[in-house]
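Hi team,

As requested, here is the filled-out complex form for the 6-hydroxymethylpterin-diphosphate run. I kept the field names the same as last time so the parser does not choke. Let me know if anything looks off before we queue the next batch.

— J.
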Amino acid sequence: MLRRKDRPLVMGVLNVTPDSFSDGGRFAALDAALDQARRMIAAGADIIDIGGESTRPGATPVGEDVELERVLPVIAAIRQISDIPLSIDTLKPAVARAAVKAGASMWNDVSGLTASPDSLATAADLGCDVVIMHMQGKPATMQDDPRYDDPVREVFSDLEARATAAMAAGVARDKIWLDPGIGFGKRLEHNLALMAALDRLSALGFPVLLGVSRKRTVMAIDPTAIDPRDRLGGSLAMALFGAAKGVAAIRVHDVRETVQALKVWAALGAG
Ligand code: HH2
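And here is what came back:
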């Protein structure tokens, strides 16, 4: 498993979708996706996370064939130009399987391996790194009325249970990453409580991946940031806060700016 001692890894987001919340449609064509991958690699990305289905609040699910048609050519094209580790952001075991065959080495599953009855067995069989993310509900309705009595306790115990289930199914312990799923079935107060407790999540003994880039949480704090591309300042603040809390990787759209912020943060002795 990839790790850096001085600062978190940076995972660059490559959405090959028409409808992702902040970059939908921009990288849907193969050339555009490959150019964006090149830019992220040059900017210092450690991993590229490729997604062919939006999971933004209210997103409509797509079929397996559509998702495969979107992601496989991009994985193959990046593999031609670079050996950067690739992650596949999918809920579907068949898409994860095809992506790993094409050269991905990580399965990023925002359902925490619950979306399909085959998810756990597929993760074990593939033997790749697996990101288990917490989500309350499904993307279509998750922001309608999320509720928790104690968000930190509930999210962490759910993640621990999913990691235990994954290991029972045969996933190696050192392949498992945990992600609190900021914005996935959570209100601002839930997200802030989870951010504040990130060090306790890392203390469970699995590397933590944090996805905060351009999210609505930033707009909930700064209501002028209506356009997701106007949320860079808030995204960087959350990334550095996560770094200070010991997260192992940060999933971002703005790779150059985040790598720079983390390098400076580490040089200041914070790492
Ligand atoms: N957030 C998004 C998608 N995938 N995966 C993990 N592990 N953690 C996250 O926080 C996370 C994720 C949402 O962002 P984005 O990919 O930009 O949007 P969309 O789902 O609309 O494609």
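Two things worth flagging: The first strand starts at residue 9 and ends at 15. The chain has ten helices and eight strands.

Thanks,
J.
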